[in-house]
Write a structure and sequence with these properties.
This protein has 133 residues and is mainly alpha-helical. The chain is built from 5 helices and 3 strands. The chain has a 3-stranded antiparallel beta sheet. It is elongated, with a radius of gyration of 25 Å.
Length: 133
């Protein structure tokens, strides 16, 4: 093992993922660790790909979208195709995230209104109870 290769345990610790996650990404052809017997060794390339996978997941990209984007790295056009495709997908996901945020903001405001109504109603009921006592 070289300084640039990490074991599955080291990858898990470095990137806060589980061994199962790494094996899953390997099965989905997102990572390609070297094998030495039963041991998986992750290269700098795998480490960079994992960072991109995790970032893509956080932004709502599907694993298939991430795989396609990662594969575009090797097109040979100084990443132009990869960057253009990433921008298109990023715009779509940003619009989706903003729409979700807006929907969530509306739901938050509605919940606050309902809670305020509930508090007001409870206060009225307490006054009625006090008057009847």
């Amino acid at each position: 093992m070289t300084d640039t290769q990490l074991t599955i345990r080291q990858m898990c610790e470095a990137y806060d993922v589980t061994p199962r996650t790494l094996r899953f990404y390997e099965a989905k052809e997102l990572l390609f660790p070297e094998r030495r017997g039963q041991q998986r060794l992750f290269t700098k390339r795998d480490q960079a790909r994992l960072k991109l996978i995790l970032r893509g997941k956080r932004f709502g990209f599907s694993l298939e979208e991430i795989r396609q984007l990662l594969d575009l790295y090797y097109v040979g056009d100084q990443q132009r195709t990869q960057l253009e495709r990433t921008q298109i997908l990023a715009r779509k996901h940003l619009a989706d995230m903003q729409a979700q945020r807006d929907e969530l903001q509306v739901a938050i405001e509605e919940l606050k209104e309902q809670m305020a109504w509930g508090e007001k109603r409870l206060a009225e009921l307490e006054r009625i109870d006090e008057q009847n006592a």
